[in-house]
């Protein structure tokens, strides 16, 4: 079971969180004309990365905040965690 | 019966407490502190089971977790449990056990015919034989294999025992209480670290219990006892026996199974049977020791052949002689230690050593005691069927290829030692890349991946002095990092005898003209010849050889067989062992009860049960409950002998004619506040929300980004910046997460807060033509007329002194209202409604009537919003704004979603107006068409229309818009029904929606 550093609550076990997928996906702006391909990329197309991956988790049984977690998908190593609105260098 | 093999003095058992037990129906006696294995051996019982494949007689091979043979069916306190190792099961008064895998009895087992047919049961036999003809599989092959296989029978009864889960955190977790574990724990504890020390056996001390060593001028055993006693007094230390750490998972999470009650005749009140510990450790010290390796020789599975370390443990810990004429067969000094113990207890052993001229202190001691030692000698084969009677022995050439003349030697047990295999399972599970250590012919942990260190015998270090030194140091260093204390511990001086180098010899060649079975894996009956076949047939990867031959795949997971298997493959393939590699170690290290893994979450406890504040009223009034998600909701209120159909029809009818009340507390409720609340709703829902006035409710549909309907419900503007959203019962949690996602990540600029208020409000839906009359009596000071509170209106009211929210919304399609009060007033509200409603013939109605009412009105619910439909499919496209953007809008342009013949909600009536259509039935054009019959749609919900007194269903039908009036067939292969039906409008009752506005 992963041990995730919630930026609001501290170290918590994975069973307090729910997974939210790729954090690098950006929702297209509202009212903007976009192509079918762009929309499909946003809704469906995800890379199944091996290695470092920035992903979303929600601390659903804790502070209910969505957070970003930088995790290696093959080793499960967690490098850094961020608040939802934090700038990532 | 006397315990003929129990020695007079010695052993750590309590001879003052005699225990009786039954094995295969016969009563025996043992002592407190025995295992089932030691007690049986004390009684001279060596035959405990039959082997898995050939049903050959099986005895005891080890004395602990590595045991491959002595797996029994245990009976305790009216329960039965399979797959229990007799070597681990502690004896208690009244214990009962039976042999497994034999019929009719362990002494006469019909399956043993496989032993004489073994030429037909080589590696891959099942794969090759039971392949064809295909039709034989279900009727003949599978039942045969099922009957032949298995190690015991699982109980079919409900388990009365309780199992607990515990979450724990510590600085240093130590797996194993041998010399290394004790030293590490002691040093870390002295530095103030929070330590958990786990030992799988009942007694602490590991090898110190049986080895002849001195630590700090006392015996190893006494030293261990002293350390444990001191650790137990320290508040920062948890010491656990009967506790097996069986899995090492990510981020230093280890799982341990504690046998709390298995050693007792019955579980104590308030105690669990087992406790599963989830331990998050900052550092882990693996001191799991090592397991002795067998040497492979002919008939090496005969009862009476066992590991020499096991024979020593039975003698030193349990005071039991495993034989009176022991033969010790060894390639290293460990065999001598066992021989010396025999000699000390007046038994004359013979030692066969495969080495030519070994010299060491231990061997000198054996010689001085006058023990008969034969160098360059091996056991070629054991003789005897149900018990060793003698051994064929021979001298062996230096290259280990040629055997000398075969002699027969009388013996009643063969104690074998092929050196030691470090127990690296936990280290390997942690991700540690193991490495092969030439000097000991075994793998040891290599580069750590997590915060783990392996020390002592588990790391291939067999010198006690070095083990203690490294372990004390590691304990100090690891704890210093955490507590920043640095208390120096004086490392005690150690007296141990030096060993000589072991012989790299593991398998005795077959003598000419003999075809003895030489077993590698004792639990799965895998012999040398099976691995040879696998390699001849082209299997190369050790993982493939394992699966083809089943080597190392039994419940003992190859603890005694893995390395010899690798040796064999490397020899045939002419590769070094590390090039062959080992199979992956996976948790659990040893079998764990399913009960322990499940814990408390069984039956009703597998999920929480949520009840509305009115629950006890429903109970008192004969409600029949149904699970709605985690909620319990009244399905109908039973009157007399009514069944569900009759009861729900009565309730629904009463709503259509008088007035009914339904508990709608379970609906999800979300409080939304902030200046941008309207903007959020406008983006989340498909319809327009910016102009909703205060005091008004609106129905809305929300989509996922892929255009599929996620949920529906009404949202009411309570005040300028305050909205009250309702969701369906099932989607309440998902909708909240959905809103939080967009507010926190996508549109953080929106100034809005959302919070669940589902449990804060109790809700009652009051529906029916007389509902307004009732409402007026409930709120005499409020104007609830059609003008004062129009359809989709909202007001606050005073319910006999309790503040209430009144919404004029309707799910039933009747004139209806929903009243909410704070949860604590829920039952007050409900009782008032029932009391005041009496004059209007009010009846409560449950979810079944609720469904009936909404279905015949054509209102969609979860069975239509099933995660596969878009607004159009549900006839909700009128709610989809063309002007503004919202979540999922862009997806609605996809070609499949705009297709001319897109599926759509319709009503379905059986032609005979009698036959109810099963939900899930498929709609087809031709009931006689060949399979697969093209499906046009499916029945999503069915009811008995109380308005027209005939069955009515909703369906999602391809090109539904143009199908009204068509005749189709509803087919339910599951219910074996074919029903001719007519497609009608989904708005079966009050199609213009006049009642809700009346």
Précis, in short:
The complex is a heterodimer of chains A (89) and B (998). Chain A is mainly β and 89 residues long.
What does this structure look like?
The complex is a heterodimer of chains A (89) and B (998). Chain A has a single domain, classed as 2-Layer Sandwich (Folate-binding fold). Chain A starts with a strand and ends in a 6-residue tail after the last strand. Chain A has one helix at 36-43; strands spanning 3-6, 10-13, 18-22, 52-58, 66-72, 78-83. In chain A, the strands form two sheets. Chain A has a four-stranded antiparallel β-sheet with strand order 3-4-5-6, with no helix packed on it. Helix content of chain A is 9%, strand content 37%. In chain A, strand 4 and strand 5 form a beta hairpin. With 998 residues, chain B is α+β, with helices and mostly antiparallel strands. Chain B folds into seven domains: 1-158, 2Fe-2S iron-sulphur cluster binding domain, sarcosine oxidase, alpha subunit, N-terminal domain (Ubiquitin-like (UB roll), Roll); 163-290 and 423-495, FAD/NAD(P)-binding domain, CATH 3.50.50.60; 294-418 and 498-516, FAD/NAD(P)-binding domain; 524-557 and 561-597, Arc Repressor Mutant, subunit A (Orthogonal Bundle), CATH 1.10.10; 607-647, no CATH class; 669-757, 2-Layer Sandwich (Alpha-Beta Plaits), CATH 3.30.70; 897-997, Aminomethyltransferase beta-barrel domains (Elongation Factor Tu (Ef-tu), domain 3). Chain B is 22% helix and 28% strand. In chain B, strand 41 and strand 42 form a beta hairpin. The longest helix of chain B has 20 residues, at 464-483. The model of chain B has no long low-confidence stretch (mean pLDDT 94). Chains A and B meet through helix 1 of A and helix 20 of B.
